[in-house]
């Protein structure tokens, strides 16, 4: 039997996925290179790694 917490987690995951799909369809996204550069800056990761 599924408990309430698992149901809530699943609903939140579905909501997040839908939001991502909606954003993508509306043109609200960035390239992988932009994402990778942000992560390198955020976590102080050298560009050559």
CA gyration radius, whole angstroms: 16 Å
So what's the overall shape? flat
Number of helices: 2
Poorly predicted runs of 5 or more residues = none
Main beta-sheet annotation: none
**Average predicted local confidence, pLDDT:** 94
Q: What proportion of the residues is helical, as a percent range?
A: 55-70%
Q: Can you give a write-up of this model?
A:
The N and C termini lie far apart (45 Å). The chain is flat. It has 49 residues and is mostly helical. Helices cover 69% and strands 0% of the residues. The longest helix is centred in the N-terminal third of the chain and has 22 residues, at 4-25.
In short:
The protein is an all-alpha fold. It contains 2 helices and no strands.
Main attributes?
single chain; 49 residues; mainly alpha; 69% helix; flat
Write the layout of secondary structure elements.
Blueprint: H1 4-25, H2 32-43
């Amino acid at each position: 039997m599924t408990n309430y917490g698992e149901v809530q987690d699943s609903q939140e995951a579905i909501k997040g996925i839908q939001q991502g799909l909606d954003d993508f369809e509306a043109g609200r996204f960035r390239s992988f290179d932009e994402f990778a550069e942000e992560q390198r800056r955020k976590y102080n990761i050298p560009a050559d790694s």
